[in-house]
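re: that chain from earlier
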Amino acid sequence: MNFESYIRSGILESYALGLGTPAERAEVERNIAQYPVLAAELKAIEDSLAAYAQAHAIAPPDGLKSKILEKIESEMKAPTPEPTPDPPSSEGGSGGGWTLKSLLPWFIAGIAVALGVALWTSKTEYREQQALMRTMEQQLKDCKSDSMLQQQLRQDMAFINDPATRRIDMLGDVGGQLSVYLNASQQAVFATTARMKPLPANQDYQLWVIVEGNPNPVPLEVFQPGSDPLALVPVSFREKVQAFAVSLEPKGGSPDGKPTQVLMIGALS
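^ sequence. v structure.
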């Protein structure tokens, strides 16, 4: 099993939050029983969630208990109609004072108040817990996104620093600057486009490559300037590359498969 990929999938976080289908949860339980590294990762996630929940615990509103008691007491003290005397019992006597029948409305009112307060408290706590769960889920997604970004940056740096990677810098007075990173052993090409100058809405830049044995430039990707100076934009790989070029084209790229206005060329040394 690829433990790193499995952990990055987020299935352990879902399990810790009580999410996932029964089949997914059963799979997690099998895996953590079989692989100690996954059990340790799940334990770390659960510890983090517990620490977060404790740090963000929501206390009940101040004075809630006293308000409930005051409400019940006020209801009990409210004036009511005079009780109707009970008819004489079969054993004699006129009957009087408080009877079960006369106390029953008070008893029911007390129960209704208590149930109403309990229901309000339960709904409030449920909404607060749901909001907390949504916040935690969002933070987990953000952490996962940050982790993926860091992983991508590490991969990009490893590619750039690979001894087999060749850097081709192109500079033009009109277009700005563009760098291409070519690694023939990996059959991969990337470009940085953040230093290219902005274009009108009806124009695009286009990359071209000149390969050995072909006198005509081969069209590659159409692009707009990027915003992240560290971002590597993937470019189509071609064998036996001799040079790269950038042209200015109408929106969508060259209409006839030939560069319209070449801005810069960078040859492999």
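Residues 3-55 form one domain.
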